[in-house]
Each structure stands twice: as structure tokens, then as C-alpha cells.
Amino acid sequence: MYNKSDFLKRKAAALKYQQGKDSSPQVVASGKGVVADKIIEKAREFDVPFFKNEALANSLLDVNVGENIPPKLYKAVAEVFIWLLNSEKDAKLQKEREEAEKSR
């Protein structure tokens, strides 16, 4: 059965940031329910990693799409970007290990 409370608990936000170009990350998409599902679907389509943090998601939903995040969110978002960079490094190392195993 449809549960509106569970439906609205699904939240997502997408950010973009280009070092040297952008002054701070910008919210490029955000929403709840079906909109959140679409954001997640699109991220999966492009192999974008996910980071789950409900408090941060709630804060990002308060930022209008197209706006830069406010300074009070810099630290939290920086921690997500650090996690993302570490995840990408780990994935690259894993891929290199797998390729090395295959070539043996």
C-alpha cells in the first residue's frame, strides 16, 4: 500500500563543482519522492557514487537549484567530496589489481 510518509522520506540532491572554475559547489538537482528517484536513477546511469546523509540532504533541499551551497555547508560537502575522491582511488586500485591478476 502507498505510504506517503515513506514516499517523502526519499530525498536526493546532486551537486557540481569544478575546481578552479566554481567558487563553491552548486546544487544542480534536488527533490523528494519521485524526483529523488529520478535523480538517483540518472546518477546510476552515469556511475555516479552515492553518499547517504539525511541531515545533509535536508539542508541541500533548502538550497534552490542553480544556487551555490551556503558557507555553513562547506565542511559537510567537503567531507563528501573527500569520500568521493577516496572511493574513486579505491576503485582505480581495485581495477589495477584485477588487471594485474588477469595478466599473470
Classify the fold: give the CATH topology. name from scop
For the record, the CATH class is Alpha Beta
Roughly how much helix do the residues carry, as a percent range? 40-55%
Instruction: Please state the structural category.
Output: alpha+beta
Name of the CATH homologous superfamily: secretion proteins EscU
Q: Could you please describe the fold and organization of this structure?
A:
The protein is an alpha+beta fold. The chain has a single domain, classed as 3-Layer(aba) Sandwich (name from scop). Helix content is 53%, strand content 12%. It has 4 helices and 2 strands. It has helices at residues 4-9, 34-45, 54-61, 74-102, and strands at 11-16, 26-32. The longest helix is centred in the C-terminal third of the chain and has 29 residues, at 74-102. It is globular, with a radius of gyration of 17 Å. The N and C termini lie far apart (53 Å). The model has no long low-confidence stretch (mean pLDDT 88).
Keywords, separated by commas or semicolons:
104 residues, two-stranded antiparallel ribbon, 2 strands
